[in-house]
Amino acid sequence: MNKEGFRHLGVAWVLFFVVILVVAVSTRPAMSGAPAEVTFLCNSHFVPAFEREIEKQLAAWGKQKGVSTRADWVATAEFNAKLVAEAETRAGHDIVVIRNYDAALYKDSLIDMDTIANELGNQYGGWLPFGRETAFFDGHWKAIPFYHQSFPAVYRMDLFQEIGVTREQVHKMTWDQFLEAAKKLHAKGKPVGFGISQTNDSDLILYPILWAFGASTVDKNGKVTINSPQTAKAIEYVKELARYMPREVMGWDDASNNRFIMSGQGSLSFNPPSIWRIAQRDVPDVAKLLDHAPVPAGPAGRFRSTGSYYLATWKFKTSPLAADLARFLMTRENQRAQIEASGGYNQPFLKDFTTFPIWRTEAPLNAYEPVPENLQLQGWPGPPEKAAAAQKAWVMHLIPVMFGKAITGTSTQEAMRWAEEELKQLYQ
Amino acid sequence: MGRGRAEAAVPVTPLGGRPLGRPPTASWLWRGSELTGFFFVLPAALLVVGLVAYPFCYALILSLTAKQAGVPGQFVGLRNFANLFGGDIFLHTIRNSFVFTGVAVVCKTVLGLGLALLLQRAMVGRRILRGMILLPWVVPSTLSVLGWWWLFDPISGVINLGLMKLGLITQRIPWLSDPAWAMAAVIIVNVWRGLPFFAISFLAGLVSIPEELYEAAHIDGAGGVACFARITLPLLRPVLGVIILYSIIMTVSDFNIVYILTRGGPMHSTHLFATFAYEMGLASGDLGKGAAISLFIFPFLAAVAYCQLRITRRQTQ
Amino acid sequence: MSPLRRRAGMVGRYVGLLPYLGFALFPFYWMLLTSLRSNAEIYDVTHLSFLVRQGLTLQHYSALLTRTLFPTWFWNSLLVSVLATAISVIISTAAAYGLVRIPFRGSAAFSIGIFVTYLVPPTLLFIPLSRVVTALGLSDSRLSLIVTYPTFIVPFCTWLLMSYFATIPKELEECAIVDGATRWQALVKIVLPVALPGVVTATLFSFTLAWGELIYAMTFIASGPHKTLTAGAVADLIRGDVFYWGPLMAGALLASIPVVIAYGFLMDYYVSGLVTGATKG
């Protein structure tokens, strides 16, 4: 190509890059020359009103301190990916709301929060034990427990009445009584149902069942104990129970039990109050008949599991204001406002807050909070050092798959052996 | 996601590009041609090296380290790959990927060819027809797959309700709760999404077959089937080859459909490499393992890509 | 063939198309129906109806347009997709032309290299890419997408355009070059008009890919006003275990409109271009 050609091509490319530059300048976010913007990351909450409340509180705090604030809400299912990206790129939000065992997984990337945690504990009656178990690692508080959302039973009072079980009886049920009720409800065409599939909801009820029968994935030293007579009992129980639940529970996602109850087809499931709240909006006739009850008890006790959320700050974020914001969000007035905005869905970690009136004035929430059962997270009773393994076991839904295999024809022994193999891989 | 891949092609002019039969006086055209060519290709080269090659190398290194998100990793060689075979979930993933890809690509090919043949002769309302057929492919998959999920829903899904009303089934089909049916469900959605692309590509291939060939065949008394077997298929073979191989690559690495419909379940029976890698790598922060899973299929895809290259090379010769 | 047979053949062909059309369109019909039904009717499983029974409602569309940032997301997606497509197509056209017409040392290796980048999935690339994005200071800006989308669009388009350029006879340009035109002029004035259908196809495919992308959109951008359609819809309309089906389906349909329009207008051009190319070639 001759010189003229080069010139043409050269001019073309220069123009091209100039255009890109113009585009770049115009679409870049305004230079946050305000080094004083404090950002907050959380997964989108099922109650939009809670998000508005948080934004309000952030703005109020920001005004006091003379900084601007911003809350970013990311889709729940993709939230983990966002956390990984922030940890890896060492850039992100000033406060991130992490979940379940994230504090253990990311403990080397998070700032210690001992001062605030101790202050709050002293001021407000102390932390729930499992709050400390899931946020205190390597001798320090790595995050401030923010709130949790646990999984009681949600059921139709009228249908249980029809089979002769009163509300009081439902609140005190054992798993054996539960099976009897399930049989009768199945005969009436209104079965009970909970997912036995690869979704979080399944873990959140199947672990409590394991614990109620005295079984667990590991013991407190981290040794895998899933292959045991207690587990076998739990598996046999669920196999029997599954005969009286719809077949589809093997493929349910987190929203299936919502539709199950709201459509009137189901008589009971296990879920936080989201089903009840949405029913109040969309199918009020069904909502009127709903109540929440504790999880049934087994030979080893009554257990409930939960999804928990914590306020944390990355080590690479050196804003001193983040800690102050965390403390601000945890005061009594603010926690109460957050809980009320969420319609009682959020549950506190600080003992004093468990007596807020919202759960007393709304009858269906009486059994939701304070939590009467033994409240634990999936890795219980495993040790804190093995929290990463517990998280992986949960993410891979090993326990629901184990039950699923047993229900679909694998022998109980074989199902337990499989789970043991998989867990050993994780807990080595 | 819903990223697509390309068909292969190779440069037609031989390296060193001296066109045959050109008088030597035109050789000045080619002097400095190397620099010219490089100049044309420069931005693409920068893009690929900076934003693809570097991340790829990084991912390769990741797969050889034990790395938890946020924590520096240590080199462990091939241990991540070896560990994959410790449990049977990964073996399931491999099996699922082959079943999923095999069945889906065959369906798309056969149905796509049929659709292309039908579309070729349809004259009235051609534009609207083609537009409607293309719809599944152009709509963002994140949203359209959600629509399918609603259709398969165990409680209010209209597919079951409709089939029951028509009397074709008596019990609801456990679309998403039975391993075999779940695989069928994800295959159906993949075929639904990919069929338009196959059909339109085959259509383009069909349209470029000169009419004279068919006319000559008719004059010689050949019927429809003979035309198809002797003229259409052989002339379509390069297109078929390219599209099929490209689709194999795209289908094996599919993510959205399985992720939204089944999350890899029930009991890991629909996990593909991409979804399992996501579960291990991102949901639990074990980046080394996630990278190992993603890269595992790479040699296979490279082999498929190589076949595709060979076909197109043969085609241009 | 007698006119009657020909007519029967035509009818047969259209009848044959019906199952395909049904398969392709039924999910959209159902999505449309869901977006127009009241919530009570959506959750009602006792009645199955293929029409709206309890009264058409536009509440989901209005909720989508007024109570979420849908219009903003829509604009962001449009901006990002159009710019990413434009940049990608320009880069690819030049690269494809260079690789096909002007071989240089290593061009064969480069074309294979481009192809190989295809085999690497975004679920693997997005972590290192997010490091690059952060290093460039593009975190949380739409520019991050405009810069990263070409990474998967350019390889695809380059291949596509290479095969188009390969089918254009070299004589066309060579005549012009002998007459004194530069390579650049040859490309723009002679090759491009003939290869236009290929460029149109490449543009359409690029736009489709960019429009529907989710993982990068979700990882690089967190703040509401900057989100694209896919990321925003997934974050705001799917909250934990609550799905806002009505607005979700409405959003899915509205999100399809630009792409459908683009294909609607340009496809005719593309196919007729193909036919012309075939008869001339």
List the helices and strands and how they pair.
The complex is a heterotrimer of chains A (428), B (317) and C (281).
Chain A: H1 3-27, E1 37-43, H2 48-65, E2 68-74, H3 79-89, E3 95-99, H4 102-105, H5 114-123, H6 129-135, E4 136-137, E5 140-141, E6 144-150, E7 153-156, H7 157-162, H8 167-171, H9 175-187, H10 200-212, H11 229-242, H12 256-262, E8 268-270, H13 274-282, H14 284-287, E9 290-293, E10 303-312, H15 321-329, H16 332-341, H17 358-361, E11 374-376, H18 387-395, H19 398-407, H20 412-426
Parallel strand pairs in A: 1-2, 1-3, 10-11
Antiparallel strand pairs in A: 3-10, 4-5, 6-10, 7-8, 7-9
Helix pairs in contact in A: 2-16, 12-13, 19-20
Chain B: H1 33-63, E1 65-66, E2 74-75, H2 79-84, H3 89-121, H4 126-138, H5 141-152, H6 158-165, H7 179-207, H8 211-219, H9 224-252, H10 256-261, H11 273-283, H12 287-296, H13 298-316
Antiparallel strand pairs in B: 1-2
Helix pairs in contact in B: 1-12, 3-7, 3-9, 4-7, 7-9, 9-13, 11-12
Chain C: H1 3-36, H2 39-43, H3 59-67, H4 70-101, H5 107-117, H6 122-135, H7 142-148, H8 150-166, H9 170-178, H10 183-212, H11 215-220, H12 229-237, E1 238-239, E2 242-243, H13 245-280
Helix pairs in contact in C: 1-13, 3-13, 4-7, 4-8, 4-10, 4-12, 5-8, 8-10, 9-10, 10-13, 12-13
